[in-house]
Amino acid sequence: MARVDLNCDLGEGAGHDAEIMPLISSANVACGAHAGDDATMRATVALALQHGVAVGAHPGFTDRENFGRKEVALVESEVHALVLWQIRELQAVARSLGARLAHVKPHGALYNLAARKTSTARAIAAAVRQSDSRMRLVGLAGSKLIEEGATAMLTTVNEVFADRTYQPDGSLTPRDRPDALITDPAVAVARVRRMVHEGRVRAVDGTDITIRADTICLHGDGPHAVEFARAIRQGLEADGITIGA
Q1: Contact (CB, 8 A) for 125 and 154
Q2: CA spacing 20 to 30 A to 231: which of 6, 42, 190, 196?
Q3: Is it the case that residue 1 has pLDDT exceeding 60?
Q4: What is the pTM of this model?
């Protein structure tokens, strides 16, 4: 039987965490840079433990004004320090609650930059390895982050998106474009099913691209986040697919 992980970015103040947590298998917790603080980290980790959901760090650029979705020019050593600091912040919270972090997934602009830029990807992978080499590194399927994670001898997890469209090169369509987001849950479910079963997805130009779906991202900050999460989980389970971290 096929198995896939459903992950969601939480602890970001969207207000849906309690409803989404029972529907997912992995939670990416904001670590205090683009969003979150000690209290939200603690509450989110506790909620994840309550529902048996794997906990991971979700480090981003320190840019709350833009929710970490604007690129910040940092050299490799600065990216390493930025990510290491955030992982350690969440590690401390998790330890205090008797938990261990299972994975790291960068947020927003840092994620997209790491997908295409080797030095950024290398810095993130090094920070993860230094923090705890047992943690998995989650990145855009087939990206530089996946490559550098493997080079650093980390277990990598190829991520696909339920509510985002793709460019022909496998990158995500920039959010400032009108065709970047998928708003119809039925369309999202159909695309996710195809990515899981066939390893393919239709790009915005109409071509099919090959993609590996180890984990599926469900964004927790949209107005229909809970509806999307529920629809996708039900759709996958109807196909006999097991949801698990």
Answers
A1: yes
A2: 42
A3: no
A4: 0.95
